[in-house]
Amino acid sequence: MSAIIVLTAVSLAQFMLAAAMAIASIRMFRGPRAQDRIIGLDTLYINAMLLLVTFGIGTGRVIYFEAALVIGMLGFVATVALAKFLMRGEVIE
């Protein structure tokens, strides 16, 4: 009984995360300003990371959690670099 509940909850979460990724993609491509595009990219990578975590919960494989960790670290660095580029016009001083 509890396995059916977990499987249903994970499937529902995956569907909602996929919908959130679609909305974030629209914001990333159609954002009126560069700041909106960066926020869309930030939201997109967070949703991708959470989608991998739900895949890991559903399948029980560890590789999805490691991939989510890598996406989280690279996404954070990319967001910081883009924000610094918007503020100063250069990334490396």
TrEMBL record:
Its membrane topology: Multi-pass membrane protein
Transmembrane segments annotated in the record for this chain: 6-26, 38-57, 63-87
Principal subcellular localisation of the protein: membrane
Keywords: Cell membrane, Membrane, Transmembrane, Transmembrane helix, Transport
Source domain of life: Bacteria
InterPro entries assigned to the protein according to its UniProt record, in alphabetical order: MrpF/PhaF-like
Gene Ontology MF: a single term: sodium:proton antiporter activity
Subcellular location, record wording: Cell membrane
Single GO cellular component term: plasma membrane
Segment forming the signal sequence: none
NCBIfam families named among the record's database cross-references: PRK06161.1 (NF004812)
Membership in a protein family: Belongs to the CPA3 antiporters (TC 2.A.63) subunit F family.
Protein name stated in the entry: Multicomponent K+:H+ antiporter subunit F
Organism of derivation: Xaviernesmea oryzae
Lineage of the organism: Bacteria, Pseudomonadati, Pseudomonadota, Alphaproteobacteria, Hyphomicrobiales
